[in-house]
Write a structure and sequence with these properties.
alpha/beta, Glutaredoxin
């Protein structure tokens, strides 16, 4: 993560989220930026043991990956200032709508330690107000340890991990991915999350 990047203020994150997402879709389709930049193949991860990490929920309480054993867990690492992360959340919403809470959970961890729980909560509320999309899964904050442990490639975000029911890493991805359908004009090799999840649930 580039620490020299100016932190986007809360007010700027509220401005025209829908327009920003539209621009991201066009930019990604045209340039290929943020798409499928550093996937890790499933075969290279076969020997991983069950993972765990601790994070702070927006209400100040603590959660950890092992709380969700028995479920497939998607770890979404993001930050408020990250515009591609906003598009990624629209795809994660599709994931959340298509699988039971008994089978799958999403944990979105803000890896920018400068951003507060109040800012994240306001971002989530504004996302719903602007786009009518409720980001109703788990949001938390990192103290730096999660990003240090799970940073991928060049340190780009969004970055996703899929953990299986025993907490083993099944898949990881630096850059934007889609739920199932590839938008028109996008590369055909962009990561589709649905098949990765279905491998664990079927």
């Amino acid at each position: 993560m580039d620490k020299s990047r100016k932190k986007t203020t809360l007010n700027s994150s509220r401005l025209k989220i829908g327009v920003i997402l539209a621009i991201i879709v066009i930019a990604v389709a045209v340039s290929g930026i943020y798409i499928y930049t550093n996937p890790v193949s499933d075969d290279s991860l076969d020997d991983n043991s069950g993972e765990d990490f601790v994070f702070t929920l927006l209400d100040g309480s603590k959660g950890q990956l092992s709380d969700y054993r028995g479920k497939v867990v998607i770890l979404d690492m993001w930050a408020i200032w990250c515009q591609p992360c906003q598009f990624q959340m629209t795809e994660l919403k599709k994931v959340y709508e298509n699988y039971s809470r008994n089978d799958l959970e999403i944990i979105s961890i803000d890896i920018d330690t400068r951003e507060s729980s109040q800012q994240i909560q306001s971002f989530v509320e504004e996302f719903k107000n602007q786009l009518d999309i409720e980001l109703d899964w788990i949001f938390g904050m990192d103290d730096g340890s999660i990003w240090e442990k799970y940073m991928l490639g060049q340190g780009g975000i969004p970055s996703l991990y899929i953990f299986d029911q025993e907490g083993q890493i099944h898949f990881s991805q630096e850059g934007v991915s889609v739920f199932s359908e590839i938008p028109q004009g996008w590369p055909e090799d962009i990561t589709r999350l649905a098949p990765k999840i279905d491998e664990l649930l079927n």
